[in-house]
């Protein structure tokens, strides 16, 4: 086995190589302009928003803390729905034991939406610090929350308003037995909030129990994940964190390109990824598993092709070279090529682009060569790269703007772990 890393090899290359068929450069001017005009520099990273709902004292905060702890290498912020309780009027304060803190109207949802909108657009917000003792949100200074990679929205009724739900990329419901919730609530409200046990029980029977049945439990159906036993459920939390990590890896591109298809990561796919990246894997096994993975991608992609006889298709295959030995990479390229030739049914194929540092070479690369791209038949680009996600998103955008002139018809799919992206696009129509 050749032990030299492909990355080393590519880093050593000056520029790129390509082979394949060429397009008449004079046709370039006829190509239509993209309808999407995000400037590369303005590609804004959208946060991944997670909603965590469940009854009072079900363990929502505990679950959020555990997720945040495990995502220590990401910028994560927690926003509590409690922070958006309405200020009580003097009248309401005078009869506070008659006030229903578990009703959806007790929250200032407009303010919460405003804050989320700002955070989503990269602006810091000041979130009030609610004081459970004085029932006011102006006693303590507000907390400055900066835009982050992940925002966790937590609260009993956080799934109640559809506008808030729509913000969420992932919804979790913490499902804990009513008796456990009540026991925890009694301890918390008497010890931490200094309340009388009689008052706590009265509030529970007057408002909390019925509000759970009427408003909170009905939102459970919106959850993507239901966690029984809250913070005791380490398996569920591990799986959630793993999923968030996977999503974060793809997140930039998915958010920027709504027609980006990501193949769902299954145990089988992850297993195959692990095997083909293991230096101990034999050549025979490598070929076998690489072939299976690539077939999956190609077959998945074919299901999305907007292909008609008169249109050309481009398939762009990104192969992250990190960690591959040369023979492995050549094998991947061989299998991809074979499969694409097979599916393209005789179309002319193959353009190989080797990019060492995407950021520095991409513009000159495409400026120099996109005019050579065919407008008919199928063209297959192979880009072997070592780039971070943000660079990738810029490159995708660049391609959309400068190479694929019809953004409504392109699509791409990716493997979460291997970072193989396939991008197909209608060629410009003539
Ligand atoms: N798994 C658990 N075991 C024991 N106590 C817990 C557990 N999860 C939470 N608690 C306690 O229950 C109370 C409520 O938990 P918390 O996570 O704040 O719930 P929520 O945010 O849903 O109100 C807290 O005092 C917390 O320490
Ligand atoms: N002044 C207040 C405000 C709210 N509550 C109760 O808090 C519960 C929600 O908070 P969790 O952290 O448990 O989700 C809710 O059941 C309200 O009744 C309160 O007691 N006093």
From TrEMBL:
Q: Which UniProt keywords apply?
A: Allosteric enzyme, ATP-binding, GTP-binding, Kinase, Multifunctional enzyme, Nucleotide-binding, Transferase
Ranges for the Phosphoribulokinase/uridine kinase domain? 49-235
Q: Name one GO molecular function term.
A: GTP binding
Q: Which reaction does it catalyse?
A: uridine + ATP = UMP + ADP + H(+); cytidine + ATP = CMP + ADP + H(+)
Q: What is its EC number?
A: 2.7.1.48
> SUPFAM superfamilies from the entry?
P-loop containing nucleoside triphosphate hydrolases, PRTase-like
Q: Does the keyword Transferase apply?
A: yes
Q: In which pathway does it act?
A: Pyrimidine metabolism; CTP biosynthesis via salvage pathway; CTP from cytidine: step 1/3; Pyrimidine metabolism; UMP biosynthesis via salvage pathway; UMP from uridine: step 1/1
Where in the numbering of this chain does the Phosphoribosyltransferase domain appear? 265-311
Instruction: List this protein's GO terms for biological process.
Output: CTP salvage; UMP salvage
Query: Sorted alphabetically, which InterPro entries does this protein's record hold?
Result: P-loop_NTPase, PRK/URK, PRTase-like, PRTase_dom, Uridine_kinase-like
Q: Return the broad EC class.
A: transferase
NCBIfam families registered for this protein in UniProt: PRK05480.1, udk
Which family does the similarity line name? In the C-terminal section; belongs to the UPRTase family.
Q: What is this protein called?
A: Uridine kinase
Lineage of the species this protein comes from:
Eukaryota, Viridiplantae, Streptophyta, Embryophyta, Tracheophyta
């Amino acid at each position: 086995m050749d032990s030299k890393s492909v990355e080393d090899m590519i880093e050593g290359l000056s520029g790129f190589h390509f082979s394949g068929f060429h397009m008449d450069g004079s046709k370039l001017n006829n190509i239509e302009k993209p309808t999407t005009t995000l400037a590369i520099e303005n590609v804004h990273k959208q946060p991944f928003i997670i909603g965590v709902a469940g009854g009072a004292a079900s363990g929502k905060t505990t679950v959020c803390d555990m997720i945040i702890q495990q995502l220590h290498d990401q910028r994560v912020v927690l926003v509590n729905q409690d922070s958006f309780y309405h200020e009580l009027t003097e009248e309401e304060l005078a009869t506070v034991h008659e006030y229903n803190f578990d009703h959806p109207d007790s929250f200032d949802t407009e303010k919460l939406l405003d804050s989320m909108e700002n955070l989503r657009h990269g602006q810091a917000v000041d979130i009030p610090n609610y004081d459970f003792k004085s029932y006011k949100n102006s006693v303590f200074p507000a907390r400055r929350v900066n835009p982050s990679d992940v925002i966790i929205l937590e609260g009993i009724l956080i799934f109640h308003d559809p506008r808030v739900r729509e913000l969420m990329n992932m919804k979790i419901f913490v499902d804990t037995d009513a008796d456990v919730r009540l026991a925890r609530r009694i301890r918390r409200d008497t010890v931490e909030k200094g309340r009388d046990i009689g008052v706590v029980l009265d509030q529970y029977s007057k408002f909390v129990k019925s509000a759970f049945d009427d408003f909170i439990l009905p939102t459970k159906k919106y959850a993507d994940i239901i966690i029984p036993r809250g913070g005791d459920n380490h398996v569920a939390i591990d799986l959630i964190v793993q999923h968030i990590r996977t999503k974060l890896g793809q997140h930039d591109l998915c958010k920027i390109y709504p027609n980006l298809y990501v193949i769902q990561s299954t145990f089988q796919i992850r297993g195959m990824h692990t095997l083909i990246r293991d230096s101990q894997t034999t050549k025979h096994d490598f070929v076998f598993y690489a072939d299976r993975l690539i077939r999956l991608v190609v077959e998945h992609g074919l299901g999305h092709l907007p292909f008609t006889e008169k249109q050309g298709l481009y398939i762009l295959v990104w192969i992250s070279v990190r960690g591959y030995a040369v023979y492995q990479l050549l094998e991947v390229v061989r299998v991809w090529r074979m499969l694409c030739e097979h599916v393209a049914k005789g179309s002319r194929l193959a353009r190989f682009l080797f990019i060492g540092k995407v950021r520095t070479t991409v513009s000159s690369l495409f400026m120099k060569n996109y005019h050579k791209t065919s407008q008919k038949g199928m063209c297959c680009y192979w880009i072997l790269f070592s780039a971070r996600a943000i660079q990738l998103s810029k490159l995708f955008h660049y391609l959309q703007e400068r190479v694929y002139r019809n953004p409504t018809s392109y699509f791409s799919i990716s493997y979460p772990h291997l970072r193989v992206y396939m991008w197909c696009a209608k060629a410009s129509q003539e």
